[in-house]
């Protein structure tokens, strides 16, 4: 999965929803289904992707017009001429599955790495621009202001074998069972084609894929490696779907045993079983050779995502100023690098540069509602730890250059949507234009109200029907913000209370 990019940026990565309809450019990192949700109804030109990804997506959704896609290649740098300022995009291999890529965006908003889904091994890092990579203990020539990072297994402390090592474990497991009449490979996901290609090459045999039960994977494999596919259902090597795998394996193994027949071999190359086993039991499964479970399946730790160790090493070498987890939500904040290098006073001073200012201020480009980021970025990743960053960024700047919502936050406003009345409580009405107030009210009429002590407001209707607003007296202390349960779905069970501005940011 992925998260929405900040509203002020002109591009989206792997998201297709009403929130990204206004984005002028779309980038697709790879063709896994969880990154394509909504693309069939919301796709629009241009969508930048690799040729492999484009072909797979068109296979999934034949109703899409190929003309909306723009092919890009690994190692290529594009310069996009945008009305709000030119920016460049460099394409890097993501070491995830066929066609998977990462994006380096460079522009007035700063330097951003979006990894999509990735396996950030040291070899993969070598494909990044060298100016962003350094040896441990030294500074990089350039630093990423933000990394949108795949943290799928960021909470798993196992040391994953490389994909090459895992594939060899699969091959070794097959060698150890020479009498198995059938070898069932639970490899029905984009990315598993690497395993099938090596198995086919090693044993000189094609692999049967049932098109009727696995149409998506059959068509995908036919695009990527058609030479490994067999149409013979009696082939020794067969792809089996993960769905229903354990039931079919148990039934097949029991039947073979009851009929005194040679035992077929079932192999599942995956990381999930290892992550679950290591958390649920004192026994840690072997990561250097295949291991059999209680059902008779053999497991190999094959991962298309980075281990926690690989994530930590990558961040040490890249030294980003800020890290945002694309999946799962907020997991980046548990990484040691982020704890040690993103939240301290010295790091905050380092962050207070023009690149970070551009992206933070881009969150609120025109109207008050635009500063609110709907997703994981503000309330779970950026704003909870950034009130000091914002103060540092705004220090010494002309107040008129600071977006109104940021001024409101620094004056004590909570980090959520503000109605026009709530906004003017924190920012003097003399700094609000009539158009801004009126438009803000129209655009925010669906926003959740905050339970705060409302200022007394005089309203006078002019002959033209517009409203003039003035504040008689503030009833809310500047350093204390009475907050109620702003969003019951996110804050269920929390009592309304008074807190300082810094505390409010963390709610």
Distance between the termini: 25 Å
Low-confidence stretches: 344-353, 362-386, 432-507
The share of residues in helices is 25-40%
CATH A-level architecture of the largest domain: 4-Layer Sandwich
Tally of discrete structural domains = 3
Cα-based radius of gyration, to the nearest Å = 27 Å
The CATH first-level class of the largest domain comes to: Alpha Beta
Domain DNA repair metallo-beta-lactamase: 224-329
Subcellular location: Nucleus
Family: Belongs to the DNA repair metallo-beta-lactamase (DRMBL) family.
Protein name: 5' exonuclease Apollo
Topology:
Layout: E1 11-13, E2 25-27, H1 39-42, E3 47-49, H2 51-60, E4 69-71, E5 77-80, E6 87-93, E7 101-107, E8 110-114, H3 122-125, E9 146-150, H4 163-175, E10 183-185, H5 193-203, E11 207-208, H6 215-224, E12 229-230, E13 237-239, H7 245-258, E14 265-269, H8 272-280, E15 291-292, E16 298-300, H9 308-318, E17 323-327, H10 336-341, H11 345-351, H12 354-361, H13 377-382, H14 387-394, H15 404-410, H16 420-426, H17 434-443, E18 457-461, E19 467-471, E20 481-483, E21 497-499, H18 501-506
Parallel strand pairs: 1-2, 2-3, 3-4, 8-9, 9-17, 10-13, 10-14, 11-12, 14-16
Antiparallel strand pairs: 5-6, 6-7, 7-8, 15-16, 18-19, 20-21
